[in-house]
UniProtKB/TrEMBL annotation, chain A:
It catalyses: RX + glutathione = an S-substituted glutathione + a halide anion + H(+). GO terms for biological process: glutathione metabolic process. It holds the Pfam family GST_C_2. The lineage of its organism: Eukaryota, Metazoa, Ecdysozoa, Arthropoda, Hexapoda. This is glutathione transferase.
UniProtKB/TrEMBL annotation, chain B:
It holds the Pfam family GST_C. This is Glutathione S-transferase theta-3-like. The lineage of its organism: Eukaryota, Metazoa, Ecdysozoa, Arthropoda, Hexapoda. One of its GO terms (molecular function) is glutathione transferase activity. Its main location: cytoplasm. The keyword Transmembrane helix does not apply. It comes from the Eukaryota. GO terms for biological process: glutathione metabolic process. It is found in: Cytoplasm. GO terms for cellular component: cytoplasm. The gene is LOC115626511. Keywords: Cytoplasm, Transferase. Residues 3-84 form the GST N-terminal domain. PANTHER family: GH16740P-RELATED, PTHR43917.
């Protein structure tokens, strides 16, 4: 029987990693469709016409229904009963707590971590030019302003971001923060709560967490236990 | 018994306006709790008890506190207190709306919000000098690259996700509308579909659309006159 859910992703994309871990944790059956962003595979006309009009990953094709945006994909599959309740609660009050984080992270954690990663790791690779020290400093300040909120507000009273157990919110956040290793940032130095929480997230997600982060570990030259 | 929740908002905030218009249009009753951002009421300790992130919009329903506009509308929808027309229950239709709501954060919202803040909000409050012409050009370019994505990828139909107005349209349009304060108007020749869509959204959601934007209209006219 042919599998009906196709998942297009690149493990070098943060939301791709988050969904990959969530799908594996959910025991979801899907066809793996890796897309090599570094080769521009997402920029072809074929990709635009047949896979995702936004020319980005991650995206899915569920029996002909095409959908982009990681959080939208997660909600769609949850509504279809494919994501277990402990990862994305069905009870609306608990779900709202997870949604609150998923909506909050876009222009806070996601933007600042991604900008830091891109400017310090990706852009020099593509252009051969390194950012100035003051530019790096500004980006670090912006990123740390949101990391402060994760440390002091989201992790104020609980083991995980939205309560005592792991949810998709933790997976999205951890994937974002892990990526900054590639730009030689070590979040563990200033943030003891984030440090302990990252360990809990990894333990709760493994072996899938390490599989999804294999390139992050390799490129940064750091495993989860390594000192940066 | 369905409770009437408290809605904390300021019509100067784009997601506040999007929700306010949705509530009025969809006949969602709420207890009106305006928060004057210009007086920095969101930064008081008292308000921190309402929303730990000290932003608007926010909801308090009994003892449940929730922030993030999209999380709020999803919560109310699950409680049966949000128009099904504006946020569909059908899984695939809802996913289409979610796709836009998730997409807009880092595209439309980021670019329009940044332009609005740098070119109007900060200078008018004397928190920053007016940006240079060169910087303004950059910001406009960024806004227009996103308008062009809406033009090409989201407007095959009358509205963003189909033939009916949904919250996706309200989130998109309120973001673009506030650029009037920067004396920016969507060019009909450059973006014919976006131009007509904005008119349709206004028509479909009036009188509430105009009511929500009355302050913006007045201020943008004053700013235009001041220049003459």
């Amino acid at each position: 029987m042919k599998m009906s859910l196709k998942y297009y992703y690149d493990l070098l994309s943060q939301p791709s990693r988050a969904l990959h871990i969530i799908f594996r944790l959910s025991g979801l059956q899907f066809e793996e469709c890796p897309v090599a962003l570094r080769n521009g595979e997402h920029l072809t006309d074929e990709f635009k016409q047949n896979i995702n009009r936004f020319q980005r990953v991650p995206c899915i094709n569920d029996n002909g229904y095409k959908l982009a945006e990681s959080v939208a994909i997660l909600r769609y599959l949850s509504a279809k009963g494919k994501v277990p309740e402990h990862l994305y609660p069905k009870y609306f009050v608990d779900q709202a707590r997870v949604d609150e984080f998923l909506e909050w992270q876009h222009i806070t954690l996601r933007v600042t971590c991604a900008m830091y990663f891109r400017t310090i790791w990706l852009d020099p690779l593509l252009t051969g030019r390194s950012p100035s020290a003051s530019k790096i400093e500004t980006l670090r300040l912006h990123m740390e302003r949101t990391l402060d909120i994760v440390e002091e507000v989201w992790l104020a009273q609980s083991e995980f971001l939205t309560g005592p157990t792991l949810t998709v919110a933790d997976v999205f956040a951890a994937c974002e923060i892990e990526q900054t290793r590639m730009a030689d940032y070590d979040v563990r130095i200033k943030y003891p709560k984030i440090r302990a929480w990252l360990k809990r997230v990894r333990a709760a997600c493994n072996p899938h967490y390490d599989v999804a982060h294999q390139f992050v570990y390799k490129i940064s030259g750091t495993g989860p236990q390594a000192k940066l | 018994m369905s409770s009437i929740f408290k809605f904390y908002y300021d019509l100067m905030s784009q997601p506040s306006r999007a929700l306010w218009i949705s509530f009025k249009l969809g006949k969602t009753p709420f207890k009106d709790c305006p928060v004057a951002l210009r007086k920095r009421e969101q930064l008081t300790d008292e308000y921190k008890q309402i929303n730990r992130f000290q932003k608007v919009p926010a909801l308090v329903d009994g003892d449940f506190h929730l922030s993030e506009s999209i999380a709020i509308l999803r919560y109310l929808s699950d409680k049966g207190q949000f128009s099904e027309k504006l946020y569909p229950k059908n899984i695939k239709e809802r996913a289409r709306v979610d796709e836009f709501l998730e997409w807009q954060h880092l595209s439309v919202r980021m670019s329009c919000g940044y332009y609005f803040m740098q070119a109007w909000l900060l200078p008018i409050n004397r928190l920053a000098p007016k940006p240079s012409a060169e910087n303004i050009d950059k910001m406009i370019k960024n806004v227009e690259s996103n308008l062009s994505l809406i033009e090409r990828l989201w407007l095959d139909n009358d509205f963003l996700t189909g033939q009916q107005l949904t919250v996706a349209d309200l989130f998109g349009a309120t973001e673009i509308e506030q650029l009037k304060l920067c004396q920016y108007k969507v060019n009909e020749k450059k973006f014919p579909k976006v131009f007509k869509w904005l008119q349709r959204v206004r028509q479909e959601s009036n009188p509430y659309f105009d009511e929500a934007h009355s302050f913006i209209s007045v201020k943008s006219k004053q700013a235009a006159l001041a220049k003459l």
